[in-house]
Amino acid sequence: MTIPARATRPVGRLRYLLTLSRPRFWLYLAGPVVVGVAYGAETTAALFTPVTVGLFAYFLIPANVFLYGVNDVFDADIDAGNPKKDEREARWRGDPLVAVVIAASALAGVAVFAVAPPAAWPYLLGFFALGLQYSAPPLRFKTTPFLDSVSNGLYILPGAAAYATVAGAHPPLAAVAGAWLWTMGMHTFSAIPDIDPDREAGIRTTATYLGERRTLAYCLACWLAAAAVFALVDGRIGALLVAYPLLVFGIYRSEVDVERAYWWYPVVNTAVGALLTLGALWRLVYA
Predict the structure, then answer these.
(1) How far, in Å, CA of 236 to CA of 45, rounded?
(2) How far apart are the first and last CA of the chain?
(3) What's the total number of domains in the chain?
């Protein structure tokens, strides 16, 4: 692949890296860190420390460069026919310097292990292992129906690591399970717009296997289960998570194009995350 001359200039590379890192989805990794810190803290002083700020900073940008960079490298052939890459995302150009930045973003994760306590290490290790093997051989989970969905629990692991870092203990098992189920629904919903390009490229995913209608039913089931499991932690959290099955049911009934609805979710997820965080802060200040 020939790299356009303007893309090799510093500004061009920075612009490309920014697009590659999916700014609309930055909070999908950094947001769980905020929630994890808020629920793990016992005092307001524990919210903002060098370690918590460092975790947020790493999972805001470098971790996204790593995660989506690896994805784009190994999906170069598939993405050639994906219309999402024409406007909102970017196709892999094979730029060696960008590849170095992606590798450096992964290696920067070593610093995260250095500052986090051992209780957080299993979650950090899980994030990097799943983040790599979701897209890269030999496992390449994204090409196996249902494993692609299950492996996307990687998105909540930064939050679990943040909780363990602040609290010095593991997060409640029900909270991890509920969040994992939520990510399974979110990932599979996001795969619906890719059904046709993935089928044309010969890629098998949960969405290509089930088809659009049954994939929506799968997402509904994941999000209902997530709400039920979160209710074991706190009934108010479970009630808040009911918004997801209600929304997907409304999308199905109204026949809204899923490709259009998909781009609503960064706003929806940010709003739900903000409400969860405010609930934790209320506990700290007024409990």
Answers:
(1) 25
(2) 59
(3) 1
